[in-house]
C-alpha cells in the first residue's frame, strides 16, 4: 500500500511539473531569462529560477546578464562557492559590465571579504566610472574599513548628482559621525514665555567635534541665563561604531548651577541601520536636579528620495503614571548633504531641548503641544548655518496655559 501511494504521488508530481518543462522547452533564452526573474522575484522560488537560468544559458552560453543573474541567485541562496565560481568565470573572460562587478563585489562585501570586494568594485569603476551603484558600494566598503573621509567624499558627489538617492543620504548621515573631520560650533537660543516665567531665557553654546576611528567625540560648553540667574554646563558626547549595522550614542553633562541646568545628565542609545534606508533607536536619558528623572526613548527613521521621516517617543515613569512625549519630524533636503528644511510636530517635552528644566516640575502633569521649522544650509562646503523656531502651547498649571516661542541660530565650521 505504501508503495502505491509513493507511485501515485510521483505520477501527480510528474503531471504537475511536466507542462512547465514542456513550456520551457519552447521558449528562447530571453523568454527563459524573463521567466526566471519572475520566478525569483514574484514567487521567491530560487531553485526553480536557477533551473530556468541554466536552460537559458544552454541556449545562449555567452549571455552575460543571465550568468550574472545566476550568480546573484546562488548568493541569495547562500551558496557562496557556486556564486563565486560563476563570477570567477566571468572575471576570466574580462567582462566589462557594471552589473557583473556590482554583483560580484556585493557578494564578497556581504561575506566580509572587504579587500577583495574593494578590488572588484575598483575594476568595475575603470569601465563604468559614472556608475552610482558601484560608487555607492565602494563608499560602503571604505566605511567598513574605517576610511571615512574618502567614503564621505564619494557619497557627497553622489548626492550632488542624485539628491533623491535615499541609500546615499542614509550612508552620509552615518558617515558624519564617523569621519575624521574637526568641527567648531557656536549657537544662541532665545526662549520667550508669555506667562509661565517673568524672564525670558538665553543660552549660548560652544562646541568642538573631533572625528576618530571609533567614532566622533563632541565637547560642549553652555552658558545660560534662566530665571534672571546665570549658569554654566559642560557636556561630552560620543558616537562609537560597533559594526556595519550598529552604532551608539553616549552622552554626559555636569553643572554646579542646579536649577539653571541639571546637576548631572547622562544618556545612551543603540542605533541599528536597517534595510531599505530605515534606522531604529532605543535608549534612555537621565536628568538629576534634586531627584533623578529617568526617560526612555525609542525612534524609527526612514530616508525616501529627498525626504527623511522620523517618529520618536519619550516615556517617563512617575509615581502613579507615565508621561508620554511624541514627535514627528520631516526633513526635505534641498540640494547637498547638509542643506534641508525641517518640520516638527509633537506633544510633551523632550530632554534634548533647552527647556529641560521643566522636567523638574513633575512632567507627568505637563500638557504641551509643539510645532516648529528648521532651516539648515551650507556655504563653500565647510560653513554650516542653522535657523530654527518652535512654538509651544503649554498647560503648566491646571486650566492655565502659556504660549512660548523658542528661537535658535547656529554656525559650524568644518576643517
TrEMBL record:
<dbReference type="InterPro" id="IPR011990">
    <property type="entry name" value="TPR-like_helical_dom_sf"/>
</dbReference>
<dbReference type="Pfam" id="PF14559">
    <property type="entry name" value="TPR_19"/>
</dbReference>
<feature type="domain" description="YaiO beta-barrel">
    <location>
        <begin position="182"/>
        <end position="353"/>
    </location>
</feature>
<protein>
    <recommendedName>
        <fullName>YaiO beta-barrel domain-containing protein</fullName>
    </recommendedName>
</protein>
<dbReference type="InterPro" id="IPR030887">
    <property type="entry name" value="Beta-barrel_YaiO"/>
</dbReference>
<dbReference type="Pfam" id="PF19413">
    <property type="entry name" value="YaiO"/>
</dbReference>
Amino acid at each position: 500500500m505504501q508503495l502505491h501511494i509513493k507511485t501515485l504521488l510521483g505520477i501527480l508530481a510528474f503531471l504537475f511539473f511536466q507542462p512547465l518543462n514542456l513550456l520551457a522547452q519552447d521558449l528562447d533564452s530571453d523568454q527563459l531569462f524573463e521567466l526566471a526573474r519572475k520566478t525569483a522575484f514574484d514567487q521567491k522560488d530560487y531553485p526553480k529560477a536557477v533551473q530556468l537560468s541554466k536552460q537559458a544559458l544552454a541556449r545562449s552560453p555567452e549571455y552575460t546578464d543571465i550568468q550574472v543573474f545566476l550568480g546573484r541567485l546562488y548568493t541569495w541562496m547562500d551558496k557562496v562557492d557556486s556564486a563565486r565560481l560563476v563570477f570567477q568565470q566571468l572575471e576570466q573572460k574580462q567582462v566589462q559590465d557594471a552589473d557583473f562587478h556590482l554583483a560580484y563585489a556585493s557578494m564578497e562585501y556581504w561575506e566580509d571579504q572587504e579587500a577583495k570586494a574593494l578590488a572588484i568594485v575598483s575594476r568595475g569603476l575603470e569601465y563604468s566610472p559614472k556608475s552610482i551603484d558601484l560608487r555607492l558600494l565602494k563608499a560602503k566598503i571604505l566605511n567598513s574599513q574605517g576610511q571615512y573621509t574618502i567614503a564621505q567624499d564619494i557619497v557627497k558627489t553622489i548626492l550632488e548628482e542624485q539628491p533623491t538617492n535615499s541609500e546615499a543620504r542614509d550612508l552620509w548621515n552615518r558617515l558624519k559621525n564617523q569621519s575624521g573631520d574637526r568641527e567648531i560650533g557656536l549657537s544662541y537660543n532665545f526662549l520667550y514665555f508669555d506667562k509661565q516665567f517673568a524672564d525670558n531665557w538665553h543660552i549660548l553654546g560652544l562646541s568642538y567635534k573631533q572625528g576618530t576611528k571609533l567614532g566622533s567625540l563632541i565637547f560642549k560648553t553652555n552658558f545660560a541665563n534662566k530665571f534672571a540667574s546665570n549658569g554654566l554646563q559642560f557636556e561630552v558626547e560620543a558616537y562609537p561604531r560597533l559594526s556595519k549595522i550598529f552604532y551608539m550614542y553616549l552622552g554626559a553633562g555636569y553643572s554646579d548651577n542646579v536649577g539653571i541646568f541639571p546637576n548631572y545628565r547622562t544618556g545612551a542609545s543603540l542605533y541599528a541601520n536597517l534595510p531599505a534606508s530605515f534606522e531604529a533607536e532605543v535608549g534612555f536619558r537621565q536628568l538629576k536636579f534634586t531627584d533623578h528623572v529617568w526617560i526612555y526613548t525609542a525612534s524609527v527613521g526612514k530616508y525616501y528620495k529627498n525626504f527623511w521621516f522620523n517618529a520618536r517617543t519619550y516615556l517617563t515613569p512617575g509615581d502613579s503614571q507615565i508621561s508620554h512625549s511624541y514627535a514627528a519630524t520631516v526633513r526635505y533636503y534641498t540640494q547637498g548633504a547638509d542643506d534641508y528644511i525641517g518640520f516638527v510636530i509633537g506633544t510633551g517635552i523632550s530632554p534634548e531641548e533647552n527647556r529641560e528644566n521643566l522636567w523638574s516640575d513633575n512632567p507627568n502633569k505637563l500638557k504641551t503641544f509643539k510645532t516648529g521649522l528648521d532651516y539648515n544650509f551650507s556655504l563653500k562646503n565647510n560653513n554650516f548655518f542653522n535657523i530654527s523656531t518652535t512654538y509651544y502651547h503649554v498647560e503648566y498649571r491646571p486650566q492655565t496655559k502659556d504660549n512660548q516661542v523658542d528661537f535658535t541660530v547656529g554656525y559650524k565650521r568644518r576643517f
